[in-house]
Write a structure and sequence with these properties.
Number of domains: 1
Number of helices: 10
Largest sheet: 2 strands, antiparallel
Structural class: mainly alpha
Strand order of the largest sheet: 1-2
CATH architecture: Up-down Bundle
Shape: globular
Distance between the termini: 50 Å
Oligomer: single chain
Order of helices and strands: HHHEEHHHHHHH
């Protein structure tokens, strides 16, 4: 009944195995050699990463029932260009999720580089700035943005399936960490024990200093 939405969900799930392969650097290096192995995993990383995002985007915009919260439907903001109306309350609720989510994504990519984000291959463990309070800021930011965009666009199915989206992101992060332990051993193990996976942890006494350092 909602083919584009179903296709987007299936596509997002289909990208997960490719993402799993893209982080198996040691396996491909051993089988094909360092250079060829890295090229293969880089291609897999680009394909799975962008594919995952494109299908995720499809989940938000695919035709589906509208989210209706009775006491939050009026007043409306009309967008004539796309013939779409957004309840002001939805806008007020969604914007913080989207902005905070985007912030986590941007500062994390700035800290590791776009190349690492796209190819899923890192030369060293980054544990500074935002990575000192959360191990997977990009995925955490993506989940926040998912909730915000789903509310903003009144995408009911997208919001309802948030637990599935969380599960897919968790599986991807779990596989990445499994391979990072193989590549970096105790260095990553110590980092993993010290920093939470998805929920940022900031000590009250260092909160202001850490926030300032993120922009430094």
């Amino acid at each position: 009944m909602y083919p584009w939405f179903i296709l987007s969900i299936l596509g997002m799930c289909f990208m997960v195995p490719f993402h799993f392969l893209s982080v198996e650097h040691l396996k491909f290096q051993k089988k094909y050699g360092m250079d060829k192995g890295n090229k293969i995993t880089a291609i897999l990383g680009l394909t799975s990463g962008w594919g995952f995002f494109i299908f995720w985007f499809g989940i938000w915009i695919s035709p589906q029932p509208r989210l209706i919260i009775p006491f939050m439907q009026n007043p409306l903001i009309n967008i004539p260009i796309i013939n779409f109306s957004i309840p002001i309350f939805y806008l007020l609720i969604s914007v913080p999720f989207i902005l905070i989510g985007a912030w986590f994504g941007i500062v994390s990519v700035r800290e590791t580089s776009l190349k690492v984000a796209e190819t899923h291959r890192t030369e060293k463990i980054v544990s500074t700035k935002i990575y000192s309070i959360i191990r997977h800021p990009q995925y955490f930011g993506g989940l926040l943005a998912h909730i915000g965009i789903s509310i903003l666009l009144s995408s009911l199915f997208s919001l309802v399936l948030t637990p599935l989206v969380i599960l897919l992101n968790f599986l991807v992060a779990w596989k990445e960490e499994k391979e990072l332990l193989k590549e970096f051993g105790d260095t990553y193990k110590i980092y993993k024990e010290r920093v939470p996976m998805f929920v940022p942890k900031i000590k009250k006494g260092n909160k202001i200093r850490k926030i300032i350092n993120f922009f430094g």
